Amino acid sequence: MPDSNMPDLSRLKFGVGQAVPRQEDPILLQGRGRYTDDISLPGELYAVMVRSPYAHGVIKGIETAAAKETPGVLGVFTGADLEGHGYGAMRCVLPLKNADGSPLKNIERPSLAMDKVRFVGDPVAFVVAETKQAARDGAEAVFVDIDVLPAVTEASAAAAADAPQLYDHLPGNLCLDFHHGDTEKVAAAFAAAAHVTKLSIRNNRVVVCAMEPRSAIGEFDAETGRYILHVGSQGVFGLKGQMANDVLKVPPEKVRILTGNVGGSFGMKASAYPEYLCLLHAAKVLGKPVKWTDERTGSFLSDSHGRDHEVDAELALDANGRALAVRLTAYANMGGYLATVAPLMGTGNFVKNVQSNYATPLIEVNTKCLVTNTTPVSAYRGAGRPEGNYFFERLLEQAAKETGRSAIELRRINHIRPDAFPFKASTGSVYDSGDFSAVLDQALKAADWDGFAARKAESKARGKLRGRGIGNFLECTAPPMKEQGEIRFEEDGTVTIITGTLDYGQGHWSPFAQVLHTHLGVPFESIRLVQGDSDLLIAGGGTGGSKSLMASGAAIVEAAQLVIEKGRTAAAHMLEAAVADIEFDRDGKGLGRFTIAGTDRSIGIMELAQRIRTANNPPPDLPTSLDVRHVFGEAPQAYPNGCHVCEVEVEPETGHTEVVRYMSVNDFGVIVNPLMVAGQAHGGIVQGIGQALMERVAYSEEGQLLSGSYQDYCLPRAGDLPDFGFVSHPSPCTTNPLGAKGCGEAGCAGSLPAVMNALVDALSEFGINHIDMPATPEIVWRAISEAKAA
User: Fold this and answer.
1) Aldehyde oxidase/xanthine dehydrogenase a/b hammerhead domain location, by residue (predicted)?
2) CA-CA distance, 91 to 209, in Å (whole number)?
């Protein structure tokens, strides 16, 4: 439940609800950020990876003699060199089951391929040298003899009887045949439906395109036997566990993960990659730190990609327009290996998020997860959440056209009503709060829905087609895992928060400090944040799934209460009073004070922390500090939701589509920092627009990546975007202390359907009812041309 002991926020300049600028920004804007590539260790060496130029083939041999003779080269390593050291492999960690109850068929991925290569970019060797150029020269001298095999790049094609087989233990390339739902009940609902809508929808593959390419430095301490990895990540505690338990096969205390600033991740940097073991092994063998920083081409090839699903979506409606059932039948592309959470997006997250904010009683999802000769796929902003919402919104829009109904009224008819909370969805989720129709109505008003006709006429006068689209959404956040909330009062008068989540661009420092300032009354400007050293953590779920504030925020709130209890004991001693007589409150400046009830005798929390630290001959029961190390237990998922309204203009002669108006109304529960939440929404919207209109990973039949640089892969730029309207319509979450719902991925969840519904609306005068992402100018032009010719 949200904390009922919140102070009067009007007294707090930097409290919860205030638009406080990001504390990190002055550091980053002045070039004082410390990313992995900024780190230089004494005596460090440089590594360059050798990658397969073929998508599929048998490794016949690897010639390294010439590379070893290259000036400056100190080591050339292949998979055979890693064997015999007791190392493990990377694998999927999800306990998913097939439709028949059998477990998913996992893949043990070694850090260097030894038998076969399975995608262009698959690492087969690496070279370590005194300089980066020498390592690059050495890598170019490595010759890999590969007997090339036929390749397959599409999941549906991989399921064909005559498709190339990637693994002997995966007949038909199938690693998971997932099923959710009551097939008989769903079939009966469709049979009894007054109307059934069907759409084949492509959820296009995207490159993550983080600002900072992956980079890492491996160290080995021979005296202690400890491995140290400097690396961009989404959480050092989880990565430490994976590297220790799965990859290095050593006790966790033998591994330390250090993460500084991170230039974006969106899910891609969450897990271990082959390069990390390679660096640590080389550091151990050569006795020096080994550094590697990827180049952008390598990022396109080796960073996990996002999305890539082929879906047949169906919606059954009764005579009144109420949804009886929704059914998804999908192929999910896993790429050449099975990443840590790869099957989640097209399975469990489809299930939970296709429900959206509608009271659909029956949901069935059938997904075949298949390996292909492409870069492995993993989580990307939303990780199945935007997709689930996109599928339902496109179905609903199409159903409205087919039945002659208003799409707005069809949404209202199917919305979960406010008096239905707590609402147990057919997926097992329990929604605690929301007012979905009110959010829709507010979005229509804020977007000037009624003024669209005039804008459409004005566009037509300029030879443009104008369309508008709605993106209703509700996403199920990741459940908060156990999270550390440590508070430390330092000798220099600062207060340190230590947490297991990790800021990889979001900006955690300010909102976490606002929570602590609000609940403990320590000066905002004195609060520091430590989050990237696994040696300081005893728990940590990392950042992902829009759960950070719910997890770390709750941990901070609970830790603050423990500090107050310790403080009451300490203040009672200092003020010579009984503990029961000590009250805690905030003064006129919002700073915490301990006061003897009914008197004016008090002591501030910062003074108290300093005095008990320096107290002479304290009694045994007096705390020696106000420091607290606390672990917050798990809390239920939250359900951020909202409604986006988009307007686009299309130039029919070229197919160019431009987003010209955009409004979003969002229910993120209690908002700690409105400025930063709006920024998160903007970022998600832009990524959604990019996927909808521009971004496309393309492979040749041989599995060669055709969109391997920014000359071939288009990203949205500032000039492609309008101003974004942002309105908050909060219904506080009742299942976590802050009342927050998460916001990091919601922009994608609303923008995918809003943009594509607007585009289809613009093209509807040609009889076009559906178009797949990415709707590039060529695709839109071709659709218009074919419609005209029909």
Assistant:
1) 30-150
2) 24
What would the two tokens of residue 564 be?
A: 């107050």
Distance CA 45, CA 130 (A): 5
Count the Cβ atoms, other than its own, within 10 Å of residue 212.
21
Q: Is the dihedral of CA 689, 691, 693, 695 positive or negative?
A: positive
**32, exposed or middle or buried, with CB in 10 Å at 0-12, 13-18, 19+?**
exposed
Give the DSSP per-residue string, 356-389. TTB--S-EEEEEEEEE-SS--B---TTTTHHHHH
Cα separation, 396 vs 410, in Å, equals: 8
Residue 659 tokens read as 């987003």
Q: DSSP string covering 12-58, please? A: -TTSTT--PPPTHHHHHHTT----GGG---TT-EEEEEEE-SSSSEE
Residue 1, exposed/middle/buried by CB under 10 A (0-12, 13-18, 19+)? exposed
CB 260 within 8 A of CB 35: yes
Exposed/middle/buried for residue 404 (C-beta within 10 Å: 0-12, 13-18, 19+): exposed
Q: Which residues pair with 219 in a beta bridge?
A: 228
Convert 537-562 into a string of H (helix), E (strand) and C (coil): CCCCCCCCCCCHHHHHHHHHHHHHHH
Which residue is listed with tokens 């390679």? Answer: 278
**Which 8-state DSSP code applies to residue 248?**
I
What secondary structure letter does DSSP report for 165? P
CA separation for the pair 510, 520 (Å, rounded)? 15
pLDDT computed for residue 620 by the predictor: 84
Q: Name every residue whose Cβ is closer than 8 Å to that of residue 333 and which is 6 or more positions away in sequence.
A: 154, 155, 158, 205, 308, 309, 370, 372, 374, 377
Q: Which residues contact 784 (CB under 8 A, 6 or more apart)?
A: 652, 655, 763, 766, 768
Give yes or no for a contact between 129 and 45, defined as CB atoms under 8 angstroms apart: yes
CA distance 75 to 570: 59
Question: Dmax of the chain from CA atoms?
Answer: 93
How high is the pLDDT of residue 635? 78
How confident is the model at residue 615, as a pLDDT? Answer: 85
Kindly state the tokens that stand for 7: 């102070």
Tell me 104's DSSP state.
P
- Report d(CA 579, CA 58) in Å as an integer: 74
For β-strands 641-651 and 465-474, DSSP reports them as: antiparallel
Residue whose tokens read 């928060």: 497
Are residues 436 and 419 in contact, defined by beta-carbon separation less than 8 angstroms? no
Q: Contact 476/637 with Cβ under 8 angstroms?
A: yes
| Helix, coil or strand: residue 373 | coil
- Note whether 327 and 314 are within 8 A (CB): yes
Q: Give the angle subtended at the CA of 787 by the CAs of 786 and 790, to the nearest 5°.
A: 85
Residues of the chain whose pLDDT is less than 70?
A: 1-12
| Terminal Cα distance for the chain, rounded | 58
Q: Give the pLDDT score at 614.
A: 87
φ, ψ for residue 332, nearest 5 deg: -115, 125
Rounded Cα–Cα distance for residues 371 and 335 (Å): 5
The tokens describing 97, both together, are 């089951």
- Tokens describing residue 14: 């930097």
Residue 541: phi and psi, rounded to 5, are: -90, -5
CA pair distance 432, 421, nearest whole angstrom: 6
In terms of phi and psi (left: phi > 0; alpha: psi -120 to 50; beta: otherwise), the region of 308 is left
Q: Please answer whether residues 484 and 556 qualify as being in contact, where contact means their C-beta atoms are separated by less than 8 angstroms.
A: no
Instruction: Delineate the domains of the chain, giving CATH numbers in brackets.
Output: 9-33+480-632 (3.30.365.10), 415-478+636-789 (3.30.365.10)
Looking at residue 3, its pLDDT comes to: 56
Helix pair 746-763, 674-693: axis angle to 10 deg: 40
What is residue 95's three-state secondary structure?
Answer: coil
Which of 267, 238, 271, 268 is CA-nearest to residue 255? 238
